């Protein structure tokens, strides 16, 4: 089998073909997807395409390859940097990146592929991202207004929240939309543990010798982590079972922050179970 790694940019495509052991067979730099496809047919018949997971620039090529019924996988960017460091050629270029993408696809057999149900979730993600942009612009306007008021009257004190709306409508709906668009098709995850790792709410083992301990995972999808954190904080204030869970964890010697992390892990399990039992949601 031939693996073709492609480094995609807005106006250029850089591809490198490797064999089963990662040896480079051929390379191509072009700006046309048709030329890339015709070149791939000369490389070999059994092909696997590996694209770096940057969907804002790779979606067009993905659609072209799917139209030609080509097999393809998405390689997370965090997997390409170690492969680039292992290579014998030093430096960084589009062809070096494409080679690293192809070799990363060889090393990782369980990479994600495009799924037909992504279309609706993509639209939802665009709406949620647009809403986040509007919130960020509103915050910048508030900050400028505070500085202007301070210049007019340095003694003026604007209370926190005085420039906010008193009620945030549909907060539950917005958080649910954020969960759906960041998780994507739930079939990507084989268990709630995989979803928790993806969200960065599963503790990392940091044991050594007789000392058994875990530490906070600062990786994962931070947008998804933030949505779970909002739910955990809100439930800790308003939902009696969640409050009882937090109190029990604090009674075991955990801090409030550590108890919230435990609750976020439980929420990841609940979200996974709900999406698995309600496939129409995704």
What's the tally of helices? 10
Secondary-structure element order, as H and E? EEEHEHEHHHHHEEHHH
Q: What is the overall silhouette?
A: globular
Q: Structural class, judged by helices and strands?
A: alpha/beta
Number of strands: 7
List the strand order in the largest sheet: 3-2-1-4-5
Q: Helical percent range?
A: 40-55%
* Weakly predicted, low-confidence segments: 166-171
User: What is the mean pLDDT?
Assistant: 83
The biggest beta sheet, please? 5 strands, mixed
Task: State Rg.
Answer: 24 Å
How many separate domains? 2
Residues in β-strands, percent: 5-15%
Calculate the terminal CA-CA distance, rounded to whole Å: 33 Å
Polypeptide structure, described:
- This protein is an alpha/beta fold.
- It has 10 helices and 7 strands.
- It has helices at 33-43, 55-67, 77-86, 94-107, 118-152, 171-183, 192-199, 222-238, 240-251, 256-277, and strands at residues 2-8, 13-18, 24-30, 47-52, 71-75, 204-205, 214-215.
- A 5-stranded mixed sheet has the order 3-2-1-4-5. Strands 6-7 form a two-stranded antiparallel ribbon.
- Strand 6 and strand 7 (214-215) form a beta hairpin.
- The longest helix is centred in the middle third of the chain and has 35 residues, at 118-152.
- It is globular, with a radius of gyration of 24 Å.
Quick rundown:
By secondary structure, this protein is of the alpha/beta class. Helices cover 55% and strands 12% of the residues.
Fill in the keyword field for this structure.
282 residues; Nucleotidyltransferase, domain 5; 2 domains; 5-stranded mixed sheet; 10 helices; globular
